[in-house]
Amino acid sequence: MKAPLFWSNSQDTPGWQAHLLAPLSALYARATARRVARSGYKAGVPVICIGNINAGGTGKTPTTIALVQRLIERGHTPHVVSRGYGGRLEGPVRVDERQHSADDVGDEPLLIAAFTPVWVAKNRAAGVRQAEAAGADVILLDDGMQNPSVAKDLTVIVVDAWRGFGNGRVIPGGPLREPVAAGMARGDILISIGDRRGQDRFESNWAGLVSVPRVEATLKPLPTGLEWRGQKVMAFAGIGHPEKFFQTLSGLGADLLRTEALKDHQPLSIPLMKRLEVEALALGAQMVTTEKDAVRLPRAFRMKVVTLPVRLEITDWSPIDDRLGRLGLD
């Protein structure tokens, strides 16, 4: 689903569509409130949920990877449980990069599995039980803030700093899965991801509604060995907000001759990739994509497409470290 333009309006002027859809938004919010009020499985190890209030991509996967790395640095054995969006396997199944494809387990679990054990399970509680049995001393739920099947010990809310909470309205009148205040009441930490301009924008528009400690973070590209400045590029991305990826390439100095914004998690079929390859050859450009998209590439194209990896850089870890310490994860 492509987000309607009015979802990105300000909360002060949400648009006539949001007002018209207000009764449906109220019903959606009440349904979410009833659902999250239910109690779920209480694991024997700490469970950290990385979730969001917005529908769509906000940066949960790089946040999960950053927290995994932080926990490993502290001597812990984190496992990740994901529903495996886009994958066909019900699970619980441990992701094996040598055996599974994105069609099996989804693209995000394949990406995270390079850092730590990942379990795909449509039934998250069953996935958590398997992770416990396999020796995890802390479990990260990739998404699932609005899923009550597992009790959370720490909930990290992730938001795109520039977009914030859109027009502040709940689906279908806006981009929110639940009202900001309701989400904050169940959250423990908010991570806003964006550059300085984005952080300032979030501060001016939304800081008054943030009732939990807020941590600023940015996505930083990793070195690839390719000199980006002046490099002719045809970039494609099937992530929540492809334009952010294109902006990152531009910021590195790449010459973007063509961009293709795909749907989030869109399959990279052979016909699609052949079309992109022909266009890139005609332009004399290098095909470039994201890490998340790269795991969906057909085998024949994996050596033809350059991947630009990014990692989450957190300005100040102390609020997160403090909460981890309370859970015995120091």
TrEMBL record:
Transfers the gamma-phosphate of ATP to the 4'-position of a tetraacyldisaccharide 1-phosphate intermediate (termed DS-1-P) to form tetraacyldisaccharide 1,4'-bis-phosphate (lipid IVA). Pfam families: LpxK. PANTHER family: TETRAACYLDISACCHARIDE 4'-KINASE, TETRAACYLDISACCHARIDE 4'-KINASE, MITOCHONDRIAL-RELATED. InterPro entries: LpxK, P-loop_NTPase. Pathway: Glycolipid biosynthesis; lipid IV(A) biosynthesis; lipid IV(A) from (3R)-3-hydroxytetradecanoyl-[acyl-carrier-protein] and UDP-N-acetyl-alpha-D-glucosamine: step 6/6. Its EC number is 2.7.1.130. It catalyses: a lipid A disaccharide + ATP = a lipid IVA + ADP + H(+). GO terms for molecular function: ATP binding; lipid-A 4'-kinase activity. ATP binds at residues 54-61. The gene is lpxK. It comes from Celeribacter ethanolicus. Belongs to the LpxK family. This is Tetraacyldisaccharide 4'-kinase. NCBIfam families: lpxK. It comes from the Bacteria. One of its GO terms (cellular component) is plasma membrane. One of its GO terms (biological process) is lipid A biosynthetic process. Keywords: ATP-binding, Kinase, Lipid A biosynthesis, Lipid biosynthesis, Lipid metabolism, Nucleotide-binding, Transferase.
